[in-house]
Every structure is written in C-alpha cells, then in structure tokens.
Amino acid sequence: MQLSIVIPLLNEEESLKELHDWIVSVMQSNHLSYEILFVDDGSTDNSWNIISELSVLNPSVKGIHFLRNYGKSQALHAGFKAVSGDVIITMDADLQDNPEEIPELYNMIINEGYELVSGWKKKRYDSIIFKNTPSKLFNWAARRTSGVQLNDFNCGLKAYAKEVVKNIEVSGEMHRYIPVLAKNAGFSKIGEKVVKHQARKYGKTKFGMERFINGFLDLLTIWFVSRFGKRPMHLFGALGVLMFLIGFGFAIYLGIDKLFINKFGRLITDRPQFYISLIAMVIGTQLFLAGFLGEIMIRSKKEEKRYIVSKEINIALLEK
To answer: pTM for this one?
Structure first.
C-alpha cells in the first residue's frame, strides 16, 4: 500500500464526510492506493457513527475510537501502530489542511529521499494576535532549542516514511515535536513544504492560548529528555558532585583557618561560610541521589498503557 492517512479528531462530525470525499477524489485522480485511518479521541458528538458509515461505503476507511479524550499525541501513537502504508500522512479533520497537497508530499518521501516532510502554513487565516504571533514565537524558540530548522512545527499536515513512525515514541503532548523526536532517533533527512491553509469551515478550534504555554513547557521537556533522558546521572550526578565539592572546599577552608590561622577567632558556626558549606554539600548529595534514582527507574521502567481503545473498524486487517 502506498499511502496511509492518519486523521486524529475530536468532535468534527460536520467535516468528516466532506474530508473523506475530498481525500478519495485526490487518491483516485492520482492513482494511489491508500487507507484512511480516523482516530476518534473520545468524541461526544456523532463523529464515530459517521466514521462507521464511511467504512461501510469505503473499505479503505479504518477507525479507532478511544474510551475518552486522551490527547492528540495518544491518537497519533495509536494510528502509527496500526498503519501499513509506505508513506504515512497526518492531517487534521477540520478541513484546514488541504488533501491536494498529499501527492507532492508523497513524492518528496518516495522520490526525493526525505524521511519526514513537514507542512508550512506560510499564509494563515487565523487570528494574528491569538494564534499567528504566538505561533511565530513558539516556532522560533523550537528552532533555537532543537536545531531542527522548520518554520511551522505545529502544522498537522506532515508526511513520514514508514520507518520513522514505527521507530519513534509519541507520548504526552509531544505531537508538536515529532520532527525533533525523529531527529533524535537518527532520521536526519527532514524537509519542509509550503502548504495551503484554509479557514475553519465548521465548528470552532479545540485549542486555545494555553496550547502555546504547554508547548513551551513541552519544548523544555523534550530538550532535557533528548539530552539526559537516557542518562540522568550525567546531569544530576555532575551537578551533585560539583555542589558537594564546593561545599567540601568551604569546609576544608574553615577547618584550616580555625586550626592553624585564627585559632581563637569566632566560632565556625558564627561564620556564613559554614552554612554555605553545609547547604552545598546537602544539595550536592540530593542531586547525586536524584541522578542515581533516575538511572534505577530507567532500568526498571515498564511500558504502561496510555490510552484505552473502546472500538475499532478494520484494524485487525491492518495488524496481520
């Protein structure tokens, strides 16, 4: 199969049929074999019933339904596990991503050698104050922190080689940073394509300003995890040893001063250096222990279930 299209969604009943018909039209006109996997992230409207109806009309439609809302990252994780296409396309269900872009994204993966291609919504139809400006600041910070030179980390329209989605772990709220996760996993051929952005046709956005705050916090998390996630002792242990040595150095200085220089001077406990020494050694010990415990946790970590799938459509066929 040439293409797998993964579409995470939450309460998008108005747009699903139109999106499906648009994708099918593009696939047929370009003679591409495909599957469409809708991942319903706990919708409370009629979205799942519509997906079920579409699967009856079109056997290429697959579906996963979560028991409740777990988040976009978990939806993508479940979708990536189930797909089987040579190229995987992710896109949002709100009709703001244009399916006409899919053939070119597919071509960039297959014929131009990219492992991941991210869409860039260069011209946007969102609020300048509440979405465009914060998005530019967020993308600037993401570029500086991660080293991945993309203009639009938040764009849901992306293309991946199959090997990428099968070898990265999308968890928490890290869907914004899949290119960074791919780079950290060793996939370096990452490209970008300017794509058309369309104004939302139905309903309203599910994301507010808090997503940018969460995005910056996630950026700090992924920076830390990418550098020290597998070796916490390298950070906490090094800081702990440094702090302990500073404290121990003050203690040696106080001891020498009291024993050999100012034998009849004020008490050691009356000097601020004593408390600096004590606190530094205590903090150093705690940091070292934090790194040690982190190493133990990594080695004993068990895979935990991050979401519960309540219903599936045609997924068994994919997993065989």
So the answer is: 0.74
